[in-house]
């Protein structure tokens, strides 16, 4: 068993003004962290440059009030809509990135998600790679992040070369009862794949503070615990924390990045490397490329195609609370149920509607900021009776949904959600299902631009440099030693959670060997 502090020898806290490495990875989340893990024994000297710090381990990690009412861990800068309205996005700067707060639900994309799919608002485009290309890397991801699920339980799951490495964690009685009532309606509820260290000698205590909380006992398979710390323990990977990269500098030809310029507590740091990887998350990677405009790249680095920042997608999402006033929902770990019966077009629906999955158990403080006028005891009382679900539909890539830079380099995000008709139909279907399952009261809230947790698409991959930013191997078309390894290269968003696909792309990039050749 590694000690809690084993990785600290590889953490740089007082950097020299200039650092030199073989590979510099900017961002330590699902993309960057997983890539560093995969390259840890490649022979390359690797530096991760991370804007945030290690998330402090403290009792507040598990406090709904501290996390959701006081926003103790929200540390992103404000982003702005084109009309100037600022908002605080669901984006986190810590070692491990947004995965420190994620729900650890780990679906693979469906096989057909990589092809063209017709939706109510248009066609979701095909990727330049197939499910078969990613399959072995999904399997490796599931081993690294300890994914628990039952083979064949989700009828829409794609084929797989290996079983899940760990068994499904099981429903608690309230969710088992709901699943049975849903099944009785002819639907096919299944056990969600979860990345938690549950089981014999596992650290997971199956608490109510997993989804949308950091894990106090490091039992959630997040990128910090599962990838970055093991990478640091190898001795070949170092991390510079509290260092926000401001821009990337190229040689005069513009074909090679020569340095990343970071702002650190101790001053400016210049990071030189043979290869650079941008893994700052879809919005911040695009912003960094745009901020790195130069004579050689006047529209932003790697942006000859004018695609950087465009095609922003984030799923169309709803929080859905179904209540039975006569009975309490005493579930602790609620995020175990999924429903994919309307994921694709079929006899029941002319176009795909999306995915339904359990949320971590909602409690009063978690909705207080959204319902400021309702007293907390009332919210507590109501949420004691609800089963809480997350409904998500595919968002389509539109050129006008984009990241640009505003005054002082701030992030401006333009977004018009797509497929709303399909999404609202999904909500109506679920209302019907919930009522027949014995939950007569349904409360639901469609989420807006602040809900950026499933952001993707801002540096799409493709074979044509005129219409894409990176190759299918994730190397920038316009820059020979720059890769983009996070959710930016997604061509479509599908309608399931993105992190496994981010990680599988990172593992595929490492396995291809281009970065270490
Ligand atoms: C509350 C919540 C719940 C979620 N639940 C799920 C789920 O159940 N399943 C799932 O699949 N996905 C889930 N997600 C989404 C998932 O976390 C993301 O898809 C995933 O983390 C994206 O990986 P990434 O590498 O693109 O970005 P991130 O993981 O966000 O990593 C980006 C990193 O780059 C760093 N960075 C940014 N800018 C700079 C800079 N200029 N210089 C240096 N460093 C920088 C950031 O600090 C961050 O560490 C959830 C997200 C949230 C917020």
| Helical stretch tally | 10
What are the bound molecules?
flavin-adenine dinucleotide
* The CATH C-level class name: Alpha Beta
The largest sheet, given as strand count, sense and whether it forms a barrel, is: 8 strands, mixed
Q: State the total count of DSSP E strands.
A: 22
Number of discrete domains: 1
The CATH architecture designation is 3-Layer(bba) Sandwich
Distance between the termini: 33 Å
Mean pLDDT across all amino acids = 97
What is the CATH T-level topology?
A: FAD/NAD(P)-binding domain
* Rg, nearest Å: 22 Å
CATH-level-4 superfamily name: FAD/NAD(P)-binding domain
Task: Give your account of this protein's structure.
It is globular and about 70 Å long. With 517 residues, the chain is an alpha+beta fold. It has a single domain (12-516), classed as FAD/NAD(P)-binding domain, CATH 3.50.50. The protein contains 10 helices and 22 strands. The structure holds flavin-adenine dinucleotide (FAD). The site of flavin-adenine dinucleotide (FAD) has 39 residues, from helix 1, strand 12, helix 6 and helix 10. Flavin-adenine dinucleotide (FAD) binds next to helix 1, strand 12, helix 6 and helix 10.
Features:
single chain; about 525 residues; alpha+beta; FAD/NAD(P)-binding domain; eight-stranded mixed sheet; six-stranded antiparallel sheet; about 20% strand; globular; binds flavin-adenine dinucleotide
